[in-house]
Amino acid sequence: MRRAVFLDRDGTIIVDENYLADASKIRFMPGALDAMRTFRDRGMMLVVVSNQSGVARGLITPEQLDEVDTRFRALCAAEGVPLDAVYYCVHGPDDGCACRKPRPGMLEQAAREHGIDMAGSFMIGDKVSDVEAGRAAGCMTALLSGGDWPALLSSMESSWKT
Length: 162
Prior knowledge:
By secondary structure, this protein is of the alpha/beta class. The chain has a single domain (26-157), classed as HAD superfamily/HAD-like (Rossmann fold, 3-Layer(aba) Sandwich). The protein has helices at residues 32-41, 62-78, 105-114, 128-137, 149-156, and strands spanning 4-7, 45-51, 85-89, 122-125, 140-143.
């Protein structure tokens, strides 16, 4: 079984543009790429799990989400942190799906598809719903406060499993 770091996308890895529909507007959060390199150096998979209700709300099209995702993955790879997997929930908050965080559906799907040891993995995000999804899936969790990646990494040091 492999260990992973599950990461929210908007507000955690990239600046939250509020329903990002334009791939040219992707900007990385300060410290996010360095943190992802640290996780990769520790042998952890990088798995993005992100609610994208803008599709259900009609604010972005599935094609725009695909364009943003394609560029997002390419930029991560170009920075030396290729993503192992990306999962999006395109449902709205009232749709009752199992994949929308705080439910653990995306994390559980990734665990099944990639043989991930949930107890040895982390869920990191900027919202309480990210932490709740990680807890429900059996992961260790961390809330990224104010985009402060260095402080988060420092606080995680005691949780690392070698």
